[in-house]
Amino acid sequence: MDHRELELKSIEYRKTILDIIFNSGAGHTAGSLSCIDIINVLYNNVLDINPANFKNEDRNRYVQSKGHTVEALYTVLCDKNFFSKKDLDTLNQFDSHFIGHPTRKVPGVEHNTGALGHGLSVAVGMAIGFKLDNKPFKVFTLLGDGELSEGSIWESLLSASKYKLDNLVIIIDRNGLQITGKTEEVNPIEPLIDKFNSFGLFVHEVDGNSVSQLDEVFKKVPFHKEKPNLVIANTIKGKGISFIENQVVWHHKLPSKEEYKRAIEELNMQLENFK
Predict the structure, then answer these.
(1) Is the pLDDT of residue 190 over 80?
(2) Which pTM was predicted?
(3) Beta-bridge partner residues of 241
(4) Residue 2: partners with Cβ closer than 8 Å, 6 or more residues away
């Protein structure tokens, strides 16, 4: 898919995210909007994961460690025909498998996640498995920057470096905000590049809302032989909606009817200008 098509997809995906969150009355709005470009590029240009090959052992893997932004993942999986929009519209309804964090009961979800920090541990194990089996496949995992306060993250990075997992791609959604404020005020995590380098990773930094930069950096994997790959994707939390961008209150805030209408109007205008 070319970059123009990816950009169009991102706008359409943002509309779906807002639609399902508004109609379900629950969800993580801003974080899903910040990471959707990353998931878009992965599923449409990188992973080669689809309903036909999902049950095959010989394929790439994607683990969404920042599981609370599952609306973004569900949106893309629906577009890739893992399930219907009718199924997706049951999000957070009684007796629906479509709950607020990834579960393997939903077609296309690789692993249950939600407890922050655990998805990376699972991804490291998958990457070790591919190495032991001499298989050429890669494991991609998406983390939130607020998630980096979890000790299991750094334990996993040590293991990834020890086992020389150049088949592991760790992506940080670096939007600078977490549930109660700025990451550097809640629990400072910088200097990230220096920290990741000291843990033996090879780091690239990109604009995480630029589909072209994301596409280009993923094509460079592996960045360095026998070193785990890490991408710091600098994003805007709430990207695409003017009154949601960089507003910490929108971490778990739901749009009112008026806000939903205004947000959709903004995205429709982006589509119109795009054409």
Answers:
(1) yes
(2) 0.97
(3) none
(4) none
CATH class of this structure's domain 3-274: alpha beta
Amino acid at 246: N
- Give the side-chain half-sphere CA count within 13 A for 248: 11
| Gap between the Cα atoms of 166 and 139, Å rounded | 10
Cα 6 from Cα 163, distance rounded (Å): 34
Handedness of CA 12, 14, 17, 23 (dihedral sign): negative
Please report where in the chains the tokens 């549930």 appear, as a residue. 179
Domain residue extents for the chain: 3-274
CA-only gyration radius of the chain, Å:
18
Those residues with Cβ within 8 angstroms of residue 126's Cβ, 6 or more apart along the chain or in another chain: 61, 63, 139
Band (102; pLDDT cuts 50, 70, 90) = very high
Measured on CA atoms in the order 221, 223, 226, 232, is the torsion positive or negative? negative
**One-letter amino acid for residue 14 of the chain:** R
- DSSP label of 262: H
Signed CA dihedral, 66, 71, 77, 79: sign only: negative
